[in-house]
Specification:
Elements (H helix, E strand, L loop, with lengths): L10 H9 L5 E6 L2 H9 L5 E3 L1 H9 L9 H14 L4 E4 L7 H14 L3 E5 L18 H14 L6 E6 L2 H4 L1 H13 L4 E4 L5 H11 L5 E4 L11 H7 L3 E4 L2 H20 L12 H7 L2 H10 L3
Helix pairs in contact: 2-4, 4-5, 5-6, 8-9
């Protein structure tokens, strides 16, 4: 947990170490500071800030490019401050051209995250598992990646290049684009939304020696839900589970509200919920009491 009076952290170097480990690094999605804390408290080594979940939680709207860079970066800053583990954040298209990417990357780095992914969609973008996507030219995205690499101050800040071209131009084009993005300096490659296990295997076979690879296990999305063991066997380095926490929270809130609507009180739902004291402990009230005593006049 990110303590209010904590010691300096080195989450970016830690993320590099984790990615170099023997098995895939598992990164559950978080859409706010509370869900990020829950991911950390569950024992995971990294948090993924989901753009889909950020849009849903802040706007109650779908992930179709409605949020701007400032809103996304502000959410990333709160999430990074809430946990001690590294945070990887969705940076969408970089919110403009290559020059705009310079400011975007600098702002995410200042926000305290350990890395970001940038995608090659036309702006306004859409969730990678929605239909109707369009992509920019390869050369334009190469310029964005080069800008991102040039502007980062910490060499450990991770630049993940995502291509959405598989759904638009086919898998061959997506793999060709990924190679170009690696040559431009991307640290990690992310081919979004392969639609069969054969495509998943082909991406790994052709790219895993080029750079570490991301597998996006989008809950309910277009990519088949293969096992973590198979993902490891194929050689992927990072696995994102982007929206499971959001879906679980939605189901839990709906169930609670149904009970409240039916009964007029939440009494029947309380046995399945954290206690008041347990929840305040979870979000750090003991630390506040300790600091109040430490700095009391």
């Amino acid at each position: 947990m990110g303590d209010l009076l904590g010691t300096p952290r080195a989450p970016r170097a830690r993320l590099r170490e984790l990615l170099a480990g023997p098995g895939p690094l598992v990164a559950p999605g978080a859409y706010d500071a509370l869900s990020a804390r829950l991911v950390e408290q569950a024992g995971f080594d990294v948090v993924y800030m989901t753009g889909f979940g950020t849009t849903a939680s802040l706007l109650g709207r779908p992930d179709v490019g409605l949020l701007g860079g400032s809103e996304m970066i502000d959410n990333a800053r709160r999430i990074a401050a809430a946990v001690d583990v590294p945070v990887i954040a969705d940076a969408d298209t970089g919110y403009g051209n290559a020059v705009t990417v310079l400011r975007t990357v600098a702002a995410y780095e200042q926000a305290g995250v350990a890395g970001i992914h940038l995608e090659d969609q036309v702006s306004p973008k859409k969730c990678g598992h929605m239909s109707g996507k369009a992509v920019i030219a390869t050369d334009e995205m190469v310029g964005k990646i080069r800008a991102a690499v040039a502007v980062r101050r910490d060499p450990d800040f991770l630049i993940i290049a995502r291509t959405d071209a598989a759904a638009v131009e086919g898998l061959d084009a997506a793999i060709t684009r990924a190679r170009a993005y690696a040559a431009a300096g991307a640290d990690v490659l992310f081919v979004e939304a392969p639609t069969s296990e054969e495509e998943i295997a082909r991406v790994a076979r052709e790219l895993r020696r080029v750079a570490p690879l991301v597998f996006n296990w989008a809950e309910g999305g277009r990519t088949p839900p293969i096992s973590l063991e198979r993902i490891a066997e194929l050689g992927y380095s990072l696995v994102l589970y982007p929206i499971g926490t959001l879906l679980a929270a939605t189901a839990g809130i709906r169930s609670f509200l149904e009970t409240l609507m039916d009964d007029g009180t939440p009494a029947a739902a309380l046995p399945g919920l954290p206690t008041f004291d347990g929840f305040t402990d979870l979000i750090g009230l003991p630390e506040i009491h300790e600091l109040e005593q430490r700095f009391a006049p």
